Amino acid sequence: MAEAMIKARAAADLTQAQLAERMGVSQPAIAKLESGKSVSLNTLKRYAQATGTKLKVEFVPRAA
After folding, report:
1. 11: Cβ–Cβ under 8 A, 6 or more apart, which residues?
2. 39 lies in which domain range?
């Protein structure tokens, strides 16, 4: 998840500080989110909105 978040931010051409401003949080909070720590679904939605992306969560069957 963290890698996808970083890619979304990069594609939006945003620094962590710029994204933090859009989300109304601090830059260290963005760094923590992007480090792969536990993230709520609500936060993921806000992150997607701030980066101009769409959040898609899906369950995929495991390979046998």
Report:
1. 51, 53
2. 2-51
CATH of the domain at 43: 1.10.260.40
Kindly report the pTM of this predicted structure. 0.78
Q: What is the 3-state secondary structure (H, E, C) of the chain?
A: CHHHHHHHHHHCCCCHHHHHHHHCCCHHHHHHHHCCCCCCHHHHHHHHHHHCCCCCCCCCCCCC
pLDDT of residue 53: 96
How many degrees, rounded to 5, is the angle at CA 1 between CA 43 and CA 42?
15
pLDDT in tens, 15-40: 999 999 999 999 999 999 999 877 89
